[in-house]
Every structure is written in C-alpha cells, then in structure tokens.
Amino acid sequence: MSTSTAAGRKPGAGAPKAATAGGNEAKRAKSVLGGSKYSQKQLWFGALAWVIAIVFVAPYIEMAITALRPKDELTGDGYVPSKFEWANFVDVWDKSTLGDNLKVSLLVAGMSTLLVLVVSLPAAYYTARKRFRGRGVFLMLVLVTQMFQPTSLLVGLYREFYILDLLDSYWALVLVNGAFNLAFSVWILTAYFSAIPVELEEAAMIDGASRLGALRRVTLPLAMPGIVTAVIFTFIAAWNEFTVALVLVTTPDKQPLTVGINSFLGAYRVEWQYLFAGSVVAIVPVVILFAYIEKHVVSGLTAGSVK
Amino acid sequence: MAETAVRRAPSVGTRVKKALAPLPWIGPAVLLIGLVVLWPVVVMVWSSFQRIRRTGIVVGPNGTDNYTKLFDEPDFVAVLWNTVVWVLVVVAVTLVLSLFLAQLFNQHFPGRRFARWAMIVPWAASVFMTAVVFKWMLHETHGVINTLMVDLHLMDAGKDWLGKPSTAMPWMMAVAVFVSLPFTTYTLLAGLQTVPGEVYEAARIDGASTWRTYLSITLPLLKPAILVAVVINLINVFNSFPIIWAMTNGGPGYETATTTVFMYQLKASDIGESAAMSVANFAMIIILVAFFLVVSRGNKETDR
C-alpha cells in the first residue's frame, strides 16, 4: 500500500493541503472545453447530487419539525404542524433531566478533549521530531487503540471501573473517551509537526528564545489548524458517545445527553417533541463544528491504518 | 567532543538515560492506553473464566463454564447468523453506494460544496439520535414514512416495521448504511483527488469508454482508499450497538440482536457469560479484519 493516495500518504507529507490540486486542474480544463460554466451533463449530475443531499438531511429536518410540534399534533398525520411550538425548546429543560444531562455532556466532552490534548501534544511532537527506540512500537500501540472500539471492550471496561470504584462517575467517561480518541489526535498532530521545518525552531533559538519558548511562539501557532481539528474531533466523538456511558453511568442526572435521551424512549408515553428538542440542541452545534474540520478528518481517521 | 562521544561505547548510565528520554513525552500516552485500552482486555479475558455474582463480586474460577453456557444458549446461533448478515450486508452495500456517491460528488456541478456539506450531517450527528429519529419516522400510525407511503398509495395502512424481525432488520441495516456512507464516501473522494487528471486525458485519447476507464484506471487507483474504508467499516459496523438498541432493543426476544447487543443483554443476568461473549466478539473482529486484509493482499500480488 505505498501509492500516494490521501489515505496512503504519510502524515509527514503535510497531509491535508496538497490533495485537491489535481482535481482543480481537471476542473479548469473541463470548464474551458465546455464554453459555458457547466455542461448539460454536469447539471443533471448536480440535480441528482442535490436530491441525494436532501435525503441525507431529511431525517434531521423531520427531527426539527417534531421538536416544534404542539403536543396534541404529535399523533396527527400532517407533515408540518399547524404552528411551531417554540416553547418546547424551553420546556424540555424544566420537564426532564436533560438540563443536567447537557451539563454532563459538556463536562465530559470538555475534559476528554483537554486530556487528549495534554497527552497527545507532547507525544506527537516527540514522535515527529525524534527517531527514538520504541517509536514503531508506540505508533503500533496508538493504531491498536484506534482499531479497538470501546464497545468491544465493554465488559472489560465495566469490570475495570468496578474494581477502581469509578462506576457512575464522570472520570470513567473522561478516561474512556480520552483514550479511545487519542489516536486521531496523534496522527493529525504528528502530521502537522512533521511538516514544520525544525530549522524554524532553531532560528528562534538562535534569536534567543528558549526551547520551550520556540515551541510556544513558533511551532504551536503553525500547528494550530491541526490542534483545532484534534480538539473539535475529540469533542464531537465524546459528545456523541453512547454505549460506554449507558453501561458505566446509571444515575439519571449523571448521564450524558445521549443516554438521557435513551431513558425518554423507555417511558410509557414517549414525549417525542422534548426528546427531539434535546437532540436538535445536541446535533446542530457539532454539525457546524464538524463542517469546519471536514477537510482534515479523513486523513486523521485513515492515516494510521495504511502504514 | 561529539566525535569522541560517538566512538566510545556509551556507558550504562547514558544508555539508560537515552532509553528513558522519550518517557516524559510519550509516557502519559502510553499510560493512558495501558490503563484504559490494554487493562480492560486483560480484565475481560480473566472475567470470562470467573463466576461473578450479579452484584459484581467474583465468587471464583469457573473454568470454561461461561463459554459452554454461552454456546448452549438457544438463541446463540441465530444471533451469530444475524451478526454475519448484518456486517456483510451493511459493509458491502455501504461500499457500493459510496463508490457511486464519490463519483457523483466528484463531478463539477453548481453548489457542490454545499451538497457535500449535507453529507456531513449524519456523520457529525450522534448515531443514537439518528437511529431514534428513524424509529420515530417508522412509527406505525404517525411516522412520516408510513404517512408518505400511504399518501402515495404504496400501502393501504401504516405498518409496524420494527415489530417484526423480517422488516426490522432491513430498516436497521438501512440506517447503519446511512450513517456509514458519509465517512466512506469522503474517504473515497479523498482517494479520487489523487488520481492525476492526465491519466484520464490519456484514456480518452485512446478511446476508452467511461465504464472501461473506471474499471481499469479509477478502481485500481482507489484500492488503498477502499481497503482502509472497508477495514474501518468492518470494525464500526460489527460494534454498532446504538442503532439496534434505539430501534428494537434487539427484540422481540433476541431476534434482531447481533452478538454486540447480545453481550449487553447478557450483562444484566450473568457478567461472566457476557465477558465470554465479549471475548468471542473481540476474536471475531480480529479474525474478520485479518481475513479481509489477507484476501485483499492476495489480490494485490496477482495484480502485478
């Protein structure tokens, strides 16, 4: 697997940027040949692509519509409610534990992200700069964490945190989300650090900066896009995590939002409008964040498995 | 001075120092992985050979009884079969659809950027919440899918799609495909960007048909991207718990459960047996991925 696809490219190649160059050239060539900006064929392709795009979004539109339905219209069969009940988005927090669940989700996702950063920044920097003994073993270990899913270790994790007396605690979730999202961060950050010439740091040190000063003033700012990607990705992954939280945390007001919504489903009468109001609040911000890092996600998810 | 240092055999002290130098940098990562990824593997395997009370207290060694009990479960074979169908169908359908989608979204058309963004939504959104909205849309009397199909005269009345395994499984597989498509398509799109435009130019001059060009140029060049996408999908789809849990809870009975869901259900009654199921799951994933990699490597050799 040594061809230079985006997936096959080593992280060191400054991964995300160069990828689109070839595509752009082809595009330009086409539009010159076509005369007008788009050919008939391209417009048909576009129409099909747009239909598919709408299919991808449709379930979430239905989610939002349901969240805005007045209670007595949930059982009706109108596609759109007679009026939008914006109060659902206010009431949901009073009439359920979802307010607490939201706080837990913020706390767990925030702490997990911090943990990943603190652990992966030095590891990625060192791995990018030095060829030390055990480097291969370390990278292998990181890859293994990416290949294992917490779900497949569920019983082991449950037993471990039972032994550690950390069941029903945020810390268990922070540790699990931190560990299993470490790999993505390490790949992305190693790629960015490798792409920054060591000479830049040396130059800063000649100018009188200390090693740490050079890191802080030169390297970290240049690696910032990678850091932002790692932060957003980890946050979203921890935010969406469901299975481990379902097993490890049983007290309703200590559960994150995903699990809190699960308990709605168990109710005798499911209050769909509140359930989906909570879901919309959980989904909208992460979709926006994800759109921001979209270009780098594939390389982070696939970098390790190709080498 | 540096030269003499190199020539002289380094003393034990400097060698130890050198070996320990990476520790402050990568130590925390290794510690975290050891604590939260490797230790649970050990605990899981160990637990699968113990008799464990429901309260969590370990009574004592249990030999292979947990495994015997698991394999003797009346539903075990059916659950195993569900898992095989689930993984193979979802991963295969996802790959085929994504190959098509990647090709389509790689075309030049108005608003391509925004159309691609639409695909991000199911990727970024919680899989569990996505499954819940599908459950709602499939509601027998007021789900929008039933309403729509009745209005289009495709059916006379709404169906309880998730009540019967024969219709619940296909719908859940559809949801699993739906949430796997974005990642897979994006991975293939990234692969497509690396195919140099001149190659297509040359093929066109040679008079190769579009289909022929796709089969003999695009697909082979996409192979590394396809491999990675399939491996990651195999792992994700095998472990896909939230979809089934949200939509059917694995029921009625265990009829729509995969081994991952079964493991969770067993946990409530017998943790030792559940651990045995986990170990079996773990082994299956490793075998599955290894098998796939060996098969695809084999093809690669014959390609040359």
TrEMBL record, chain A:
Q: Where is the ABC transmembrane type-1 domain?
A: 102-293
In this chain, the stretch annotated as Disordered covers 1-22
Asked whether the UniProt record includes Transmembrane helix among its keywords, one would answer yes
Topology in the lipid bilayer is annotated as: Multi-pass membrane protein
Look up the record and report any one GO term of the cellular component aspect.
plasma membrane
Q: Name one GO biological process term.
A: transmembrane transport
Which keywords accompany this UniProt record? Answer: Cell membrane, Membrane, Transmembrane, Transmembrane helix, Transport
Q: Where are the transmembrane segments?
A: 43-61, 104-125, 137-158, 170-198, 218-239, 272-293
- Indicate where this protein is primarily found: membrane
One Pfam family here:
BPD_transp_1
> Where can this protein be found?
Cell membrane
Task: Give the superkingdom in one word.
Answer: Bacteria
Family as reported in the entry's similarity comment: Belongs to the binding-protein-dependent transport system permease family.
Q: Which PANTHER family match?
A: INNER MEMBRANE ABC TRANSPORTER PERMEASE PROTEIN YCJP, MALTOSE TRANSPORT SYSTEM PERMEASE-RELATED
Q: What is this protein called?
A: Sugar ABC transporter permease
Organism annotation: Embleya hyalina
From TrEMBL, chain B:
Q: Which domain of life is it from?
A: Bacteria
UniProt keyword annotations, A-Z: Cell membrane, Membrane, Transmembrane, Transmembrane helix, Transport
The entry's family comment says: Belongs to the binding-protein-dependent transport system permease family.
Designated name of the protein: Bicyclomycin resistance protein
- Membrane topology qualifier: Multi-pass membrane protein
- GO CC annotation: plasma membrane
Domain (ABC transmembrane type-1): give its ranges.
80-295
Q: Which residues cross the membrane?
A: 25-46, 79-102, 114-138, 171-192, 213-235, 275-295
Note whether Cell membrane occurs among the keywords.
yes
Tell me which species this is from.
Embleya hyalina
Please cite one Gene Ontology biological process associated with this protein: transmembrane transport
